[in-house]
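Q: I'm building a small set of examples for a reading group on sequence design. Run inverse folding on the following structure and report the sequence directly after it, with nothing in between.
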């Protein structure tokens, strides 16, 4: 799929990210008006010519239930106005964690969400989706997909900023990110184990980390949602006498104000700009642009 993309519409995503993509891929930033009528319905008006053009929609899909309908209405409008191919760039891809029926009667919503997006877009590019039981996105997405990995830019940030780091993954699911980052930053790492007791309750194994007492612990995870995984791990590390922790998440969701407690208890809270937040210190725009170019 070697396509020359022409114009990018940014639906609520990070402004710096949109600028990086437009600069790297020589895209024009498209103008549109999207707002709510007093009754809550969406109004959409595309202010740029899109007829026969290939369009990129950069969408922040944090809190997807509020954002998906406006996104689909924008895409319908673009198609109606004659856009050719429409690429969804969703730096954070939601609905990836319900990847099996954990209890009888549950919906496997990752699959339904994938089917919905696949029916609207020509292709999808994202950053480190939560691939746990699925091995790749093509298991659920019916369109071409490309994944950018944040490990190189996280590794660069750690190597530049953190003094004498040891990387810590809170659970086996984080192992893939932690090992990749540790390898690229050339620093030691360890992975703990986590038992999830509920949406807001996790239990982390008591780690044996005495050998790292003189290092700066850096917790790395793909998603920070309720923050309990990070907070619980930090509590263990504090009890063992390690210095204050640097928390790094690829995607900072920070449900229910979790960021406040994390900022208070950590040495620093850092995320990639896949979701706009004051903790964004790592720009993944360059890597995303490469993935868009590599879309096969
Ligand atoms: C799931 O296993 C992910 O890798 C994260 O560890 C998880 O989403 C973090 O969630 P929370 O911040 O709610 O503990």
């Amino acid at each position: 799929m070697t396509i020359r993309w022409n114009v990018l519409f940014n639906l609520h995503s990070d402004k710096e990210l949109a600028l990086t993509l437009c600069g790297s891929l020589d895209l024009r930033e498209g103008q549109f008006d999207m707002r709510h009528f007093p009754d809550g319905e969406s109004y959409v008006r595309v202010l740029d010519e899109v007829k026969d053009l290939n369009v990129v929609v950069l969408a922040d899909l944090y809190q997807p239930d509020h954002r998906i309908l406006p996104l689909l209405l924008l895409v319908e409008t673009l198609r109606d106005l004659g856009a050719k191919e429409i690429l969804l760039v969703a730096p954070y891809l939601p609905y990836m964690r319900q990847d099996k029926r954990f209890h009888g009667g549950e919906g496997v919503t990752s699959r339904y969400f994938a089917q919905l997006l696949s029916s609207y877009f020509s292709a999808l590019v994202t950053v480190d989706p939560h691939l746990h039981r699925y091995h790749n996105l093509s298991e659920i997405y019916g369109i071409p997909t490309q994944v950018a990995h944040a490990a190189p830019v996280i590794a660069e940030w750690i190597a530049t900023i953190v003094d004498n780091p040891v990387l810590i993954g809170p659970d086996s699911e984080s192992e893939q990110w932690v090992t990749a980052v540790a390898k690229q930053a050339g620093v030691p790492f360890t992975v703990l184990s986590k038992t999830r007791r509920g949406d807001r309750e996790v239990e982390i194994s008591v780690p044996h980390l005495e050998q790292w007492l003189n290092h700066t612990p850096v917790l790395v995870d793909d998603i920070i949602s309720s923050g309990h995984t990070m907070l619980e791990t930090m509590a263990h590390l504090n009890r063992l006498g390690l210095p204050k922790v640097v928390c790094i998440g690829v995607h900072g969701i920070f449900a229910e104000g979790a960021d406040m407690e994390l900022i208070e208890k950590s040495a620093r809270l850092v995320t990639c700009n896949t979701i706009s937040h004051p903790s964004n210190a790592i720009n993944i725009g360059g890597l995303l642009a490469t993935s868009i170019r590599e879309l096969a």
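Residues 171, 173-174, 202, 221-229 surround ribose-5-phosphate (CB under 6 Å).
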